[in-house]
Amino acid sequence: MEDKKLTRFGVSMDEKLLQSFDQIIEEKGYQNRSEAVRDLVRDAIFQHSLSKNNEIVAGAILLFYNHHQNKLVNEMMTIQHDYHDNIIATTHLHIDHHNCLELIVVKGIPADLRALSDKLITLKGVLYGKLTASPLV
């Protein structure tokens, strides 16, 4: 097993920003600021590497949309069929009379997942969308 060398460094931060961060740390149950900062750095590195990475990742695309939008559902299905190799599962929820939430579980190289999510999120009638991905560790 590889020995990991710990390096200490200082961070200057506005007092109100630090108070807000400390509140999040407490609410999430971190033992200390260092653990919280390490998680943030790991996520930032992973998110940055998504655009350059060719390793398989898994994740989900969350879409919140108005199902009454003309042709939206058909456009969404057409796009999803074009990316059928990347889609593992979908879950469709009726939030209210007008709005639906769709969760699409995906797996593949980041560029393909980003292309799929961008095509879906930018459709007229999609009110909110987000791709979340994780490395397969």
Describe the secondary-structure layout.
Blueprint: H1 15-28, H2 33-49, E1 57-66, H3 72-82, E2 87-94, E3 99-108, H4 110-121, E4 126-135
Descriptive overview:
The protein is of the alpha+beta class. The protein folds into two domains: 15-49; 57-135, ACT-like. Chain A, domain 2 (Alpha-Beta Plaits, 2-Layer Sandwich), CATH 3.30.70.1150. The chain has helices at residues 15-28, 33-49, 72-82, 110-121, and strands spanning 57-66, 87-94, 99-108, 126-135. Strands 2-3-1-4 form a four-stranded antiparallel β-sheet, covered by helices on one side. The relative contact order is 0.18.
Could you name the key traits of this structure?
single chain, 137 residues, alpha+beta, Alpha-Beta Plaits, 2 domains
Q: What's the architecture of the largest domain in CATH terms?
A: 2-Layer Sandwich
What is the assembly state of the chains in this entry?
Answer: single chain
Quickly count the helices.
4
Briefly note the CATH topology name of the largest domain: Alpha-Beta Plaits
| Residue share in β-strands | 25-35%
pLDDT averaged residue by residue:
91
List the domain count as a whole number. 2
Largest sheet: 4 strands, antiparallel
Query: What overall form do the CA principal axes indicate?
Result: globular
CA gyration radius, whole angstroms: 19 Å
Sketch the topology as an H/E string, one letter per element.
Answer: HHEHEEHE
Distance between the termini: 17 Å
Poorly predicted residue ranges:
none
Summarize the model shown:
This protein has 137 residues and is α+β, with helices and mostly antiparallel strands. 39% of the residues lie in helices and 28% in strands.
